[in-house]
Write a structure and sequence with these properties.
Helix content: 40-55%
Distance between the termini: 58 Å
CATH architecture of the largest domain: 3-Layer(aba) Sandwich
CATH superfamily of the largest domain: Thiamin diphosphate (ThDP)-binding fold, Pyr/PP domains
Largest sheet: 7 strands, mixed
Number of helices: 26
Bound molecules: thiamine diphosphate
Structural class: alpha/beta
Radius of gyration: 27 Å
Shape: globular
């Protein structure tokens, strides 16, 4: 990428300025925007390829629509970096995703131009339709525009939005950003349908079949075939993506070249002129456009860490210690080699969840459902009901979507589905929309569900083996990032239910530390011993459900001060479960319990370490809390 002076971009303070730019200026601005995105993301990490792919689309949207009154909703919002740069955030863009800096996603509290908060996929059409109804009820005239990717369009909610929009007939513009990619190449029948190459091949084949069939009809066949050939144009136009959206009662425009600002402006104006109902503008873009490494490997550059802009190569911050995710992926593979009932399921995130190893080794037992967490869970329930052992690997934040499916389709029937809840706890730079804060609360009250929280990568392997040996539903929650570099035991153990482990014997204060907080609690215990001269006990409950009641009761009888630490919401979390238990068995009056966890407010973005520091979850804060408890402070 050649260096360009950021002169035009520097002067754009409000989006309305884009409308007045000439074609040549728009071309230059696109170059400046791309260069700035690559520069900042190469330092801060972030969603590179999605944002590079929609630079011209963003410019055209700003040129055609008036964001002071028209509403624009980006689906997921990971592609909105150009939009941020052009809506008054060029000067602060270098703070992208950093603590106190601007968010990686549109956020109404950050800018009046971020019309709707996003981060999870496939909400844009529903939100836009709500805004369209609000507009009509207030007798206003502005436009409402949703921009949705072909990946996000695989989710049920997107179709629920299309369905109701068609039914209500509201004036609404949906721009489909079709780059044939989700994070990995897009999956599903729909994506094949949208793909022109495939549909052209399909049309050719279908046409051949139909003509062959007609010709085979005795006497009149040749004439019929001739007649049908004359109607070839209508045959072709019938089998296009438009047919799908027209069935939803949308007017369809496209496909349009998503890298020609002129073409985009022309077609956006056409879409804006549709007065009598919803319209879908189908735009084709290239993910990663304008930055050679991202164009060549858009899946890798979907979301990246720190890299060298000249080469695209990562600046190695790679820890020699394997991540929880990769240990999970490799262990699953090992278990699946011995058990052909194991099926791995991901909702559009094979790499993110570490299931890509499984995909390569056992393609027939691997399923990528697309961005369809709800469907993935019920699909797994179906498999489990027929004797298979489905392993559903979904991030904590995205599994929120499938709450009813977990309750109704899995737990109510006590089906042995294994939930591998990755990214549990604080995820860091992706911020509030992505933290795994709520999985303990949304899982622990469901009957039949078991929940394990491995403290490190070695325990993760035993937890996975245990979950797969379980007769009912079982979830394991583990965090984003590297393990603790612990020794890996060769053979896998089945962990006894409701049994925790005392990691360090001690006196005066007992620390119960859930999952990835156990090792920091051990470090905190060392601080306390050095600084205060006593050693607190450190207990790893291992099981969040069933609760290790007998061990907790023993601890409560021996210790009158207990500190509970969990990287998850305090409300309804593990510590709540312990308080409920102590209360129910009459032990609570004897124990002073202090709790560390995530507060009743949304934690923002920053590095994982900074956020753990802020929320009091690092070893230093754990040691300070022990000291407070020991002093008898409230
Ligand atoms: C509910 C939910 N599941 C998973 C994700 C993770 N995710 C973020 S972007 C993305 C792919 C989106 O593909 P597409 O809509 O085509 O946009 P593109 O990145 O190709 O521009 C996925 C799976 C998410 N944000 N929300």
């Amino acid at each position: 990428m050649t260096h360009v002076e950021n002169t035009l971009l520097r002067d754009i303070k409000t989006p309305s300025q884009v409308a007045g730019l000439s074609d040549a200026q728009l071309l230059q601005l696109a170059r400046e925007v791309r260069e700035r995105i690559v520069d900042v993301v190469s330092h801060n990490g972030g969603h590179l390829a999605p944002s590079l792919g929609v630079v011209e689309l963003t410019l055209a949207l700003l040129a055609v629509f008036d964001l002071e009154k028209d509403r624009l909703i980006w689906d997921v919002g990971h592609q909105a970096y150009a939009f941020k740069l052009l809506t008054g955030r060029a000067e602060t863009f270098h703070t992208l995703r950093t603590l106190g800096g601007i968010s990686g996603f549109p956020k109404p509290s950050e800018s009046p131009y971020d019309h709707f908060g996003v981060g999870h996929s496939s909400t844009s059409i529903s939100a836009a339709l709500g805004m369209a109804l609000a507009r009509d009820l207030a007798a206003q005239r502005h436009h409402v525009v949703a921009v949705i990717g072909d990946g996000a369009l695989t989710a049920g909610e997107a179709f629920e939005g299309l369905n109701l929009a068609g039914h209500m007939g509201k004036r609404l513009i949906v721009v489909l950003n079709d780059n044939e990619m989700s994070i990995a190449p897009n999956v599903g029948a729909l994506s094949r349908f949208l793909s022109s190459a495939l549909s052209r091949r399909w049309v050719r084949q279908a046409r051949k079949d139909v003509l062959g069939f007609l010709r085979a009809i005795p006497r009149i066949g040749q004439d019929l075939a001739l007649y049908a050939q004359r109607g070839e144009m209508s045959f072709k136009s019938f089998f296009t993506p438009g047919m799908l959206f027209e069935a939803f009662r949308f007017a369809y425009i496209g496909p349009v070249d998503g890298h020609s600002t002129n073409e985009l402006k022309r077609h956006l104006k056409m879409a804006a002129a549709v007065e009598d109902g919803p319209v879908l503008l189908h735009v084709r873009t290239h993910k990663g456009k304008g930055y050679a490494p991202a164009e060549a490997n858009p899946a890798h550059y979907h979301g990246v860490g720190h890299f060298t802009p000249e080469t695209g190569l990562p600046v190695s911050t790679l820890s020699p210690v394997p991540s929880f995710t990769s240990v999970f992926g490799k262990t699953l593979l090992r278990l699946a080699e011995k058990d052909d009932r194991i099926i791995a399921i991901t909702a559009a995130m094979p790499e993110g969840t570490g299931t890509e190893f499984f995909k390569e080794r056992f393609p027939e037992r691997f399923v990528d459902t697309g961005i369809c967490e709800q469907h993935a869970v019920t699909f797994a329930a179906g498999l489990a009901s027929r004797g298979y052992r489905p392993v559903v690997a979904i991030y904590s934040t995205f599994l929120q979507r499938a709450y009813d499916q977990i309750v109704h389709d899995v737990c109510l029937q006590n089906l042995p589905v294994v939930f591998c809840v990755d990214r549990a706890g604080l995820v860091g730079e992706d911020g509030a929309t992505h933290h795994g804060a709520f999985d303990i609360p949304y899982l622990r009250h469901i009957p039949n569900m078991s929940i394990l929280a491995p403290r490190d990568e070695n325990m993760l392997r035993h937890c996975l083996a245990t979950a797969l040996a379980s007769a009912g539903p079982c979830a394991l929650r583990y965090p984003r990032g590297s393990g603790y570099g612990v020794k890996m035991e060769e053979s896998l153990r089945i962990l006894p239910p409701a049994q925790g482990e005392i990691l360090l014997d001690g006196e005066a204060v007992a620390i119960a530390a859930v999952g990835n907080r156990a090792h920091p609690a051990l470090e905190a215990a060392r601080f306390v011993e050095e600084e205060l001269g006593f050693r607190p006990l450190v207990f790893d409950p291992v099981w969040i459900k069933p609760l290790p009641e007998a061990m907790l009761a023993d601890i409560a009888r021996c210790f009158d001060k207990m500190l509970i630490v969990e990287e998850g919401s305090l409300a309804c979390g593990f510590s709540s479960a312990v308080l409920e238990f102590l209360n129910d068995v009459g032990l609570s009056p004897g124990v002073r319990v202090k709790r560390l966890g995530l507060p009743d407010s949304f934690v923002g973005h920053g590095s994982q370490m900074q956020l753990r520091e802020l929320t009091g979850l690092r070893s230093r804060s754990i040691a300070d809390a022990v000291a407070e408890l020991a002093r008898g402070a409230k």
